[in-house]
Design brief:
Belongs to the binding-protein-dependent transport system permease family. The chain is an all-alpha fold and 280 residues long. It is 73% helix and 0% strand. The model has no long low-confidence stretch (mean pLDDT 85).
Length: 280
Protein backbone atom coordinates (compact mmCIF):
# COMPACT_ATOMS: atom_id res chain seq x y z
CA UNK A 1 0.00 0.00 0.00
CA UNK A 2 1.24 3.42 -0.93
CA UNK A 3 1.35 6.09 1.73
CA UNK A 4 -0.75 9.25 1.46
CA UNK A 5 2.38 11.29 0.75
CA UNK A 6 3.43 8.93 -2.05
CA UNK A 7 -0.04 9.02 -3.61
CA UNK A 8 0.02 12.80 -3.51
CA UNK A 9 3.44 12.87 -5.19
CA UNK A 10 2.34 10.43 -7.90
CA UNK A 11 -0.79 12.48 -8.50
CA UNK A 12 1.29 15.62 -8.95
CA UNK A 13 3.64 13.88 -11.35
CA UNK A 14 0.73 12.65 -13.46
CA UNK A 15 -0.78 16.14 -13.46
CA UNK A 16 2.49 17.73 -14.53
CA UNK A 17 2.95 15.11 -17.25
CA UNK A 18 -0.50 15.85 -18.67
CA UNK A 19 0.13 19.61 -18.55
CA UNK A 20 3.53 19.29 -20.24
CA UNK A 21 2.04 17.08 -22.96
CA UNK A 22 -0.76 19.55 -23.56
CA UNK A 23 1.74 22.41 -23.68
CA UNK A 24 3.77 20.60 -26.32
CA UNK A 25 0.68 20.25 -28.53
CA UNK A 26 0.33 24.05 -28.36
CA UNK A 27 4.01 24.97 -28.65
CA UNK A 28 5.14 22.65 -31.46
CA UNK A 29 3.00 24.33 -34.19
CA UNK A 30 4.31 27.72 -33.07
CA UNK A 31 7.92 26.50 -33.18
CA UNK A 32 7.29 24.97 -36.61
CA UNK A 33 5.94 28.28 -37.91
CA UNK A 34 8.88 30.31 -36.58
CA UNK A 35 11.56 27.92 -37.85
CA UNK A 36 9.86 27.70 -41.25
CA UNK A 37 9.83 31.49 -41.53
CA UNK A 38 13.65 31.46 -41.29
CA UNK A 39 14.23 28.65 -43.79
CA UNK A 40 14.34 28.14 -47.51
CA UNK A 41 11.43 26.24 -49.12
CA UNK A 42 13.64 23.16 -49.53
CA UNK A 43 14.63 23.03 -45.85
CA UNK A 44 11.04 23.26 -44.59
CA UNK A 45 10.02 19.82 -45.88
CA UNK A 46 13.29 17.95 -45.45
CA UNK A 47 13.08 14.39 -44.10
CA UNK A 48 14.08 13.82 -41.37
CA UNK A 49 12.69 17.07 -40.00
CA UNK A 50 15.22 19.85 -39.69
CA UNK A 51 14.40 22.11 -36.74
CA UNK A 52 17.33 24.51 -37.01
CA UNK A 53 18.15 26.11 -40.39
CA UNK A 54 21.72 26.19 -41.67
CA UNK A 55 21.36 29.92 -42.21
CA UNK A 56 18.73 32.20 -40.70
CA UNK A 57 16.83 33.71 -43.62
CA UNK A 58 15.81 37.06 -42.13
CA UNK A 59 15.30 38.27 -45.69
CA UNK A 60 12.02 36.32 -45.74
CA UNK A 61 10.45 38.97 -43.50
CA UNK A 62 11.69 41.77 -45.73
CA UNK A 63 10.34 40.04 -48.81
CA UNK A 64 6.86 39.79 -47.24
CA UNK A 65 6.59 43.57 -47.44
CA UNK A 66 7.88 43.56 -50.99
CA UNK A 67 5.44 41.09 -52.52
CA UNK A 68 2.39 42.50 -50.72
CA UNK A 69 1.61 45.88 -49.04
CA UNK A 70 1.72 44.30 -45.60
CA UNK A 71 2.53 47.61 -43.91
CA UNK A 72 -0.80 48.95 -45.16
CA UNK A 73 -2.60 45.91 -43.77
CA UNK A 74 -0.88 46.45 -40.43
CA UNK A 75 -1.88 50.10 -40.35
CA UNK A 76 -5.50 49.29 -41.18
CA UNK A 77 -5.72 46.59 -38.52
CA UNK A 78 -4.15 48.79 -35.84
CA UNK A 79 -6.50 51.66 -36.69
CA UNK A 80 -9.59 49.44 -36.50
CA UNK A 81 -8.42 47.63 -33.37
CA UNK A 82 -7.61 50.87 -31.51
CA UNK A 83 -11.05 52.38 -32.15
CA UNK A 84 -12.88 49.13 -31.40
CA UNK A 85 -11.01 48.68 -28.11
CA UNK A 86 -11.73 52.28 -27.07
CA UNK A 87 -15.40 51.98 -27.99
CA UNK A 88 -15.88 48.61 -26.29
CA UNK A 89 -14.23 49.68 -23.05
CA UNK A 90 -16.20 52.94 -22.89
CA UNK A 91 -19.69 51.83 -23.87
CA UNK A 92 -19.67 48.41 -22.22
CA UNK A 93 -18.60 49.97 -18.91
CA UNK A 94 -21.38 52.57 -19.16
CA UNK A 95 -23.99 49.91 -19.95
CA UNK A 96 -22.74 47.69 -17.14
CA UNK A 97 -22.91 50.58 -14.68
CA UNK A 98 -26.52 51.27 -15.61
CA UNK A 99 -27.45 47.62 -15.20
CA UNK A 100 -25.60 47.08 -11.92
CA UNK A 101 -25.69 50.33 -9.96
CA UNK A 102 -28.88 52.15 -11.03
CA UNK A 103 -32.35 50.86 -10.22
CA UNK A 104 -34.90 51.40 -12.98
CA UNK A 105 -37.99 49.61 -14.20
CA UNK A 106 -37.28 46.79 -16.63
CA UNK A 107 -33.59 46.59 -15.80
CA UNK A 108 -33.57 42.80 -15.41
CA UNK A 109 -35.58 42.34 -18.61
CA UNK A 110 -33.10 44.42 -20.58
CA UNK A 111 -30.20 42.47 -19.09
CA UNK A 112 -31.92 39.18 -19.99
CA UNK A 113 -32.33 40.39 -23.59
CA UNK A 114 -28.66 41.32 -23.74
CA UNK A 115 -27.69 37.88 -22.47
CA UNK A 116 -30.06 36.24 -24.95
CA UNK A 117 -28.29 38.03 -27.80
CA UNK A 118 -25.16 36.00 -26.98
CA UNK A 119 -26.97 32.89 -28.25
CA UNK A 120 -27.22 34.35 -31.77
CA UNK A 121 -24.22 33.36 -33.92
CA UNK A 122 -22.62 36.07 -36.02
CA UNK A 123 -23.63 34.20 -39.18
CA UNK A 124 -27.33 34.52 -38.29
CA UNK A 125 -27.28 38.32 -38.21
CA UNK A 126 -24.69 38.68 -40.97
CA UNK A 127 -27.05 39.10 -43.93
CA UNK A 128 -29.53 41.59 -42.40
CA UNK A 129 -26.66 43.58 -40.90
CA UNK A 130 -24.87 43.70 -44.24
CA UNK A 131 -28.06 44.83 -46.00
CA UNK A 132 -28.47 47.61 -43.44
CA UNK A 133 -24.93 48.92 -43.93
CA UNK A 134 -25.27 48.67 -47.69
CA UNK A 135 -28.53 50.60 -47.62
CA UNK A 136 -26.90 53.53 -45.84
CA UNK A 137 -23.79 53.37 -48.03
CA UNK A 138 -21.10 52.24 -45.60
CA UNK A 139 -19.91 49.06 -47.26
CA UNK A 140 -16.27 48.94 -48.35
CA UNK A 141 -15.38 51.12 -45.35
CA UNK A 142 -14.20 50.65 -41.78
CA UNK A 143 -17.47 51.97 -40.31
CA UNK A 144 -19.31 48.59 -40.07
CA UNK A 145 -16.29 47.14 -38.29
CA UNK A 146 -15.90 50.01 -35.80
CA UNK A 147 -19.35 51.49 -35.16
CA UNK A 148 -20.93 48.49 -33.31
CA UNK A 149 -18.26 48.77 -30.61
CA UNK A 150 -19.51 52.27 -29.77
CA UNK A 151 -23.05 51.07 -29.08
CA UNK A 152 -22.63 48.61 -26.22
CA UNK A 153 -19.31 46.97 -27.00
CA UNK A 154 -20.69 43.42 -26.82
CA UNK A 155 -22.97 41.41 -24.55
CA UNK A 156 -20.14 39.39 -23.04
CA UNK A 157 -18.19 42.50 -22.03
CA UNK A 158 -21.30 44.07 -20.50
CA UNK A 159 -21.90 40.88 -18.54
CA UNK A 160 -18.27 40.71 -17.41
CA UNK A 161 -18.23 44.28 -16.10
CA UNK A 162 -21.71 44.08 -14.61
CA UNK A 163 -20.66 41.09 -12.53
CA UNK A 164 -17.74 43.05 -11.17
CA UNK A 165 -19.80 46.17 -10.48
CA UNK A 166 -22.23 44.03 -8.49
CA UNK A 167 -19.41 43.14 -6.08
CA UNK A 168 -18.64 46.77 -5.23
CA UNK A 169 -20.38 47.80 -1.97
CA UNK A 170 -23.28 50.22 -2.46
CA UNK A 171 -21.95 52.20 0.49
CA UNK A 172 -19.60 53.96 -1.91
CA UNK A 173 -22.53 55.23 -4.00
CA UNK A 174 -24.57 56.27 -0.97
CA UNK A 175 -21.67 58.19 0.54
CA UNK A 176 -21.10 59.96 -2.77
CA UNK A 177 -24.83 60.82 -3.04
CA UNK A 178 -24.70 62.44 0.38
CA UNK A 179 -21.82 64.59 -0.85
CA UNK A 180 -23.90 65.69 -3.85
CA UNK A 181 -22.19 63.56 -6.50
CA UNK A 182 -24.02 62.68 -9.70
CA UNK A 183 -24.06 59.30 -11.41
CA UNK A 184 -21.45 60.56 -13.87
CA UNK A 185 -19.14 61.60 -11.05
CA UNK A 186 -19.62 58.30 -9.20
CA UNK A 187 -18.92 56.37 -12.38
CA UNK A 188 -15.78 58.29 -13.36
CA UNK A 189 -14.28 58.95 -9.91
CA UNK A 190 -15.24 55.83 -7.93
CA UNK A 191 -16.25 52.94 -10.18
CA UNK A 192 -13.78 53.24 -13.06
CA UNK A 193 -10.62 53.48 -10.91
CA UNK A 194 -11.67 50.30 -9.09
CA UNK A 195 -12.43 48.39 -12.28
CA UNK A 196 -9.07 48.75 -14.04
CA UNK A 197 -8.38 44.96 -14.04
CA UNK A 198 -11.76 44.16 -15.58
CA UNK A 199 -11.43 46.93 -18.15
CA UNK A 200 -7.99 45.59 -19.05
CA UNK A 201 -9.55 42.17 -19.67
CA UNK A 202 -12.19 43.73 -21.93
CA UNK A 203 -9.50 45.60 -23.83
CA UNK A 204 -7.33 42.50 -24.18
CA UNK A 205 -10.13 40.28 -25.45
CA UNK A 206 -11.41 42.99 -27.78
CA UNK A 207 -8.00 43.57 -29.33
CA UNK A 208 -7.39 39.87 -29.96
CA UNK A 209 -10.85 39.33 -31.44
CA UNK A 210 -10.59 42.40 -33.66
CA UNK A 211 -7.04 41.71 -34.79
CA UNK A 212 -7.88 38.12 -35.73
CA UNK A 213 -11.28 38.90 -37.24
CA UNK A 214 -11.51 37.51 -40.75
CA UNK A 215 -15.19 37.21 -41.60
CA UNK A 216 -16.12 40.83 -40.84
CA UNK A 217 -13.47 42.45 -43.09
CA UNK A 218 -14.10 39.79 -45.73
CA UNK A 219 -17.77 40.76 -45.93
CA UNK A 220 -17.46 44.56 -45.80
CA UNK A 221 -14.13 45.38 -47.45
CA UNK A 222 -13.65 45.19 -51.22
CA UNK A 223 -10.72 47.53 -51.80
CA UNK A 224 -7.40 45.77 -51.26
CA UNK A 225 -5.91 49.00 -49.88
CA UNK A 226 -8.34 48.68 -46.94
CA UNK A 227 -7.57 45.05 -46.14
CA UNK A 228 -6.62 43.98 -42.63
CA UNK A 229 -3.79 41.59 -41.76
CA UNK A 230 -6.22 38.65 -41.64
CA UNK A 231 -7.34 39.30 -45.21
CA UNK A 232 -3.81 40.10 -46.28
CA UNK A 233 -2.56 36.79 -44.95
CA UNK A 234 -5.30 34.94 -46.78
CA UNK A 235 -4.48 36.84 -49.97
CA UNK A 236 -0.84 35.96 -49.51
CA UNK A 237 -1.75 32.30 -49.11
CA UNK A 238 -3.84 32.35 -52.26
CA UNK A 239 -1.25 34.18 -54.35
CA UNK A 240 1.96 32.45 -53.27
CA UNK A 241 0.96 28.90 -52.39
CA UNK A 242 4.39 27.50 -53.14
CA UNK A 243 6.22 30.15 -51.09
CA UNK A 244 5.79 28.46 -47.72
CA UNK A 245 8.67 30.31 -46.12
CA UNK A 246 7.05 33.66 -46.93
CA UNK A 247 3.68 32.46 -45.67
CA UNK A 248 5.20 31.47 -42.34
CA UNK A 249 7.03 34.80 -42.09
CA UNK A 250 3.78 36.66 -42.72
CA UNK A 251 2.01 34.54 -40.09
CA UNK A 252 4.72 35.41 -37.55
CA UNK A 253 4.30 39.11 -38.30
CA UNK A 254 0.56 38.81 -37.72
CA UNK A 255 1.13 37.03 -34.41
CA UNK A 256 3.64 39.51 -32.94
CA UNK A 257 1.16 42.27 -31.88
CA UNK A 258 -1.11 39.72 -30.16
CA UNK A 259 1.81 38.33 -28.17
CA UNK A 260 2.99 41.82 -27.17
CA UNK A 261 -0.48 42.88 -26.03
CA UNK A 262 -0.90 39.67 -24.05
CA UNK A 263 2.49 40.10 -22.36
CA UNK A 264 1.57 43.64 -21.33
CA UNK A 265 -1.92 42.74 -20.10
CA UNK A 266 -1.44 39.24 -18.71
CA UNK A 267 -1.12 40.41 -15.10
CA UNK A 268 -4.61 41.88 -15.33
CA UNK A 269 -6.15 38.87 -17.07
CA UNK A 270 -6.54 36.41 -14.19
CA UNK A 271 -7.26 39.15 -11.68
CA UNK A 272 -9.93 40.72 -13.86
CA UNK A 273 -11.73 37.48 -14.70
CA UNK A 274 -11.61 36.28 -11.07
CA UNK A 275 -12.99 39.54 -9.70
CA UNK A 276 -15.68 39.79 -12.39
CA UNK A 277 -17.43 36.50 -11.75
CA UNK A 278 -17.74 36.33 -7.98
CA UNK A 279 -21.36 37.39 -7.60
CA UNK A 280 -24.39 37.31 -9.88
Amino acid sequence: MLSAKTKKTVGKLITYAVLVTGSLFCIVPLVWMVRSSLMTPVEIFMVPVKWVPDKLMWSNYKKVFEVLPFFTYYRNSLFIAALVVAGSMLTSSICAYGLARIKWKGRNVVFACIMASMMLPFAVTLIPTFLMWRAIGFTNSFVPLIAPAWFGGGAFYIFLLRQFYMTIPKDFDEAAYLDGASHFQIFTRIILPITKPSLAVVGLFTFMNTWNDFLGPLVYLNDEAKYTVALGLQLFTGSYRSEWHLMMAAACLVLIPVILVFIVGQRYLIEGITMSGVKG
